[in-house]
Amino acid sequence: MMITCGLKVTSRSVPSTPRARSSGLGINSRSVRCSSYPFVMPQVQQLSQEAHDRLATEFQDLTTRGRIDIARKIETARELGDLSENGDYHAAKEEQGKMEGRILHLESILENSEIVELTAGSVDVVAPGTVIAIVFEGDEQPERMLVGSIEEKRDDVGVVSPGSPLGAALLGVAVGDSVTFEAPGGSQTVKVVAIER
After folding, report:
1. CB 30 within 8 A of CB 4
2. In this predicted model, what pLDDT tens digit does every residue of 27-77 receive, in sequence order?
3. pTM, whole model, 2 decimals?
4. Where are the domains of the chain?
5. Are 123 and 130 in contact (CB under 8 A)?
6. How far is residue 135's CA from residue 150's CA, in Å, rounded to a whole number?
7. Is CATH 3.90.1720.10 what the domain over 45-115 is classified as, yes or no?
8. Is the separation of the CB atoms in 89 and 78 below 8 Å?
9. Edge-to-edge, what's the strand order for the sheet holding 131-136?
10. What is the rounded distance in angstroms from the CA atom of residue 159 to the CA atom of residue 49?
11. Under 8 Å CB-to-CB from 124, ≥6 apart: which residues?
């Protein structure tokens, strides 16, 4: 038995035609075009209820009003004539592509999200949803960062993903602890000076 791109092919299922036998495909097999990219399960996104609701509202708006508006723009541009030299048409199609990309991104986040409770006050260790203050080795000025999804972004703090080298190193660390992580430019050390929710 051989497995190719998720298809099971057994020797009993090989058809009788010479071409089919040489291809190695069975009767019940279909021609499957396999991607050269490995299938990767989407990561679970930890979101606050507020961020989840905001993303769900944006998704709903883009899939209804947004698609209707883009269709109108494309139709209006199409009426202007020759599409090969129509800048309005190409701009509308490009806008449509960007919007559809955002819709797919939002859909993936919402399907693979987990809502986490964010309680006010301080906590003992760094966890997703916490806002931390860290000082990089050699610096004196602390930087405030939210450990969580980029979709949680706030104006007053930066965001570090729990899956990034820095975020992964910080998880479970208490105030006063220092951690070293591998950055693209080499190893760096940071010290946690404050943790809050």
Report:
1. no
2. 444 444 555 666 666 778 888 888 899 999 999 999 999 999 999 999 999
3. 0.64
4. 1-40, 45-115, 131-196
5. yes
6. 21
7. no
8. yes
9. 158-160, 143-147, 131-136, 186-196, 178-183
10. 17
11. 174, 195
